[in-house]
């Protein structure tokens, strides 16, 4: 499939983009080796007005500056000093919205994914969860700021899902965000076994 055009990432609404990314193919090509997975789970982060976002209240730091770029670049950061988390920067310049990719269904290069993760067999722990999928695809902070139209990390198009195929709930690990922690900003493909086991909050 063709790479998604830059305009996809700058259209309208971070929630719509988060849902539209479901079913698309996240691809890396590192040292000539291609690996890919179908996106099955995403989380939206709505910038300056979202207490769960790194850019809450227009915070600008060395880490968050890439979020203020025009949509269509990678935002990769280290979580707890261990996990590299892959986000898609969306919207226009100086509108720091982003979509975290939380789960993939492995498609290509599965033997390479197993080697990278030290696993001997395929199960859902391979790419279900934002830290697991980046390890499997070889994504680290060195890809931070990479354009998603380049030749190292990109997203390929796929037919849009029907609304009934998509579920929504609260985000994972954002209890600090007060009322914003209860926003239904996490989306996943119904019944996919590759969705992470993380649980959002309920009132």
From TrEMBL:
Domain of life: Bacteria
Keyword DNA damage: yes
Alphabetical keyword list: DNA damage, DNA repair, Hydrolase
Molecular function as annotated in GO: alkylbase DNA N-glycosylase activity; DNA binding
Keyword Transmembrane helix listed: no
EC number(s) stated in the UniProt entry for this protein: 3.2.2.-
Principal EC category: hydrolase
GO BP of this protein: base-excision repair
InterPro entries from the UniProt entry: Formyl_transferase-like_C_sf, MPG, MPG_sf
Classification via NCBIfam families: 3mg
PANTHER family tied to this protein: DNA-3-METHYLADENINE GLYCOSYLASE
Record-stated family: Belongs to the DNA glycosylase MPG family.
Protein name: Putative 3-methyladenine DNA glycosylase
